[in-house]
Amino acid sequence: MASHPADARQQTWSAGTYDTHARFVSDLAGGVVEWLALKPGERILDLGCGDGVLTAELKAAGADVTGVDSSPDFVASCKAKGLDARLMDGQSLTFSHEFDAVFSNAALHWMTNAEGVVQGVSRALKPGGRFVAEFGGHGNVAAIVTAMQAVGRRRGGDLSLAHPWYFPAPDVYQALLEKNGFAVRRIALIPRPVVLKTGIEGWLMLFRKPFFQQYENQAENALAEAIELLRPALCDANGKWTADYVRLRVEAVKS
Ligand code: BEZ
Hints:
Blueprint: H1 15-22, H2 24-27, H3 30-36, E1 43-47, H4 53-60, E2 64-69, H5 72-80, E3 84-87, E4 99-105, H6 114-124, E5 125-136, H7 142-155, H8 170-179, E6 182-195, H9 199-207, H10 209-213, H11 219-234, E7 242-254
Parallel strand pairs: 1-2, 1-4, 2-3, 4-5
Antiparallel strand pairs: 5-7, 6-7
Helix pairs in contact: 7-11
The structure holds benzoic acid.
C-alpha cells in the first residue's frame, strides 16, 4: 500500500480518500504476494502497510504480521481492522533479527533514503530472511511528472514538488541490495498501465496536491493546464484515463 514516510514532501494521507481513488493499489498486488510465497506461521513485516487491506490478507493467509507506516491515519485504520500496526518511518526501522520476511507493496518509492530502508530491512530480518517488494520503477508515471514539470517551468515555483519519489532501474536497485548484504533472487521492471476509475484529477489531488498548492490562487488553473497536457497521452476517446505505472518487483535474501 502506498506508504508514508516522514519526508514525503508534505504528502498527507487519509484512509477514506485513499480508498476512493487508489484501491487499485492493493487490488493489483497479486504478483508480489505470489513472490512472497508466504508459509503459515511466518513472521512478516509489512513495510508501508497503508490502510492494512493487504496486511489483513497476509494475516488471513496465516502470517503473524506486523505493519508499519508513518501515517497516523493509516495506522489507526489498521488497528481498527484488528491488525498489529505501528507508527514508524520505514527509512529508520527499529526491529532486530525478528522477521522471516519483509514485504512491501507500493510504498518504497515514497522513501527517498533508499539505503536507510535497505539497511533497516536487513536489521529486521533473521539470517536467510527474504525481502519481497514492489514499488515504482524507472519510468513510473513519466508522463504525469513531465506534464507537471512543464506547468512548473511556465509558472516558476518549486519543480522538485513534481517528483518527490524514488523510482530506480533494476540494475541500480540490485547494486544497492548487494552492497548491503543481500543476494537478489529475481528482479523485474513491469509496465502496469492502470485505469483510473475516478480520473486523473483525483489522482493528482491525492498524490501531488503540494505541487499545485504552491500556486495558491492559481492552483486550479495550474491543475487544469496539467490535465490538458496529459489528455492526449493518458485519456482515450471515451474519456477513460490510464496512469502510466511501471513497477519494480524484487525478491532478495539476506545472506
Ligand atoms: C505508484 O504507486 O507508483 C505511485 C503512487 C503515487 C504516486 C506516485 C507513484
